Amino acid sequence: MSKSSEHKDGSGNDEIMDDDDRESSDLCQDNGPQNDELSQADSGYDLVKAPNMVPNVFIPYAKRAKRMDMKRLQKTVFDILTNQNEKETTERDPKESELPEVTGKVMFSKVYHELPDKLPQKDAQNLSFALAFAALLHTANDKTLLIEETADLSDIIVSQDKKLC
């Protein structure tokens, strides 16, 4: 059954179509009132008003990666937390097995403000809040420190976790 023999010979058998006829006939059909509604929607008269545009906000970010000695930063953070000076760490007896602990509660803002003075100049220039916070998290994990928030969530309190020691 070929398409050409059935349609062109006038046999009246219009229902037999191949895929090409079906696609073109669907495009040409008039859908009545649905077609009118579609054309109104396409015209743009019933569209929703565009939302207000948010202005672009400039957010400064580092365009070049900063280099930081994270082990030194973590050690410095821990030294500040334990109130140790560089002299105390060098004068301590190496045979002494007691590890220093954080005594009392220390605010992270205090640690962050003391860090640039205790780091080498190059590291102090590259220091950011994110790097200092990451160093605090690593130190807290390694030394089993407890991190708590203040009541107004403006700072972090760091102390020794006695439960995990």
From TrEMBL:
It is found in: Chromosome; Cytoplasm. Residues 26-42 have a biased composition (Polar residues). Transmembrane segments: none annotated. Residues 1-46 are annotated as: Disordered. One of its GO terms (cellular component) is condensin complex. Keywords: Cell cycle, Cell division, Chromosome, Cytoplasm, DNA condensation, Mitosis. One of its GO terms (molecular function) is chromatin binding. Its main location: nucleus. One of its GO terms (biological process) is cell division. InterPro entries: Condensin_barren_su2. Residues 1-11 have a biased composition (Basic and acidic residues). Pfam families: Cnd2. Belongs to the CND2 (condensin subunit 2) family. This is Condensin complex subunit 2.
